[in-house]
Amino acid sequence: MDIDFTNTTMDVFLNETIHPCLTQAQKCFIVTANPEIVMATRHNARFKETVQSADHVLPDGIGIINAAKMQGTPIDERICGVDVMHHLLAHAAENGYSVFFIGAQEASNKKAVEKAREKYPGLIVAGRSHGYADLYDEAFVRTVVEAKPDIILVALGMMKQEGWIRDHIDRFDKGVFMGVGGSFDVLSGTAKRAPSIWIRFQLEWLYRLIRQPKRIIRVVKAGQFMLLHVPIIHKIGKVIGYNKSRSRKKR
After folding, report:
1. Is the separation of the CB atoms in 84 and 32 below 8 Å?
2. 167-188 burial, b if ≥16 CB within 10 A, otherwise e?
3. Which long-range contacts link 21-26 to residues 24+ away (Cβ below 8 Å)?
4. Sign of the CA dihedral 223, 229, 230, 234?
5. Are the C-beta atoms of residues 184 and 157 closer than 8 Å to each other?
6. How many Cα atoms sit within 13 Å of 211 on the Cβ side?
7. pLDDT band, residue 70 (cuts 50/70/90)
8. What is the DSSP letter of 1?
9. Least enclosed by CB within 10 Å: which of 5, 9, 72, 130?
10. Please, are residues 52 and 80 in contact by the beta-carbon 8 Å criterion?
11. Smallest Cα–Cα separation from 121: which of 167, 89, 169?
């Protein structure tokens, strides 16, 4: 679908990419993409360009891993966005890097910062803002830029968070930028991750669906994504001229 994933392991990615980036005060735009995000790029050309512009697109979602296997181009390891966030916070606390938290509701954002400080003593919080402010307001953007954060975590949901990073990253001299979706809710305790046994058996999606039935639409999107990568369906699609990489217009 014209989305290039960074094929590596969590340890290698952190030690050989993120840590040097922070040490050298460079900029890095990370997208953690699951099947829903990849499917969304088919319907929104601007979003597709945004994802393609990222320095790294990480395989966040077992559907990405399975689809890669079906295509004969296996990916080394699933790299979950919430896990990357925790690694970033831990590394920041240990090495004196600052973090700016943007997004989620005010209560969740505030609680996430409090929990981060508790879990990672010494963490420097450059600033925070809930996601319902005018994040494109010049005064707000200037506040974030002038805080000179080393890490900027943006929890605005798919497309909005990547769009904000895309539109403002050039204003910064340094920083690891990552959209983290609902990770602030997990960090604050507002939402719970699936138990490890569910994750090990690739049933994290089912656990979330049971707890949040409204996620059914997202599950359907993931199902569509997987069907497009089943070899026989892929071959039939080629025969009839169906291109899974082509953007689709909304009707």
Report:
1. yes
2. ebbeebeebbbbbbbbbbbbbb
3. 21/176, 22/91, 22/95, 22/97, 22/150, 22/151, 22/176, 25/150, 25/173, 25/174, 26/174
4. positive
5. no
6. 12
7. confident
8. -
9. 72
10. no
11. 89
List residues bridging with 172 in a β-sheet: none
Tokens read off for 111 = 């609680």
Tens digits of per-residue pLDDT, 77-121?
Answer: 999 999 999 999 999 999 999 999 999 999 999 999 999 999 999
Q: How deeply is 142 buried, as exposed, middle or buried, from its count of CB atoms within 10 A (0-12, 13-18, 19+)? A: exposed
Ranges of H-type helices in 15-75: 19-23, 35-43, 45-53, 62-70
Place of tokens 């989620």: 104
pTM of the model: 0.82
Question: Does residue 53 register a pLDDT over 50?
Answer: yes
User: Does residue 231 have a pLDDT over 60?
Assistant: no
Hunting for tokens 């600033």 — which residue is that?
A: 127
Output the DSSP codes for 170-219. Answer: GG-SSEEEEE-TTHHHHHHTSS-PPPHHHHHTT-HHHHHHHH-GGGHHHH
Residues in the chain: 251
Model confidence pLDDT, tens digit, residues 170-217: 999 999 999 999 899 989 987 666 566 655 655 565 545 556 565 556
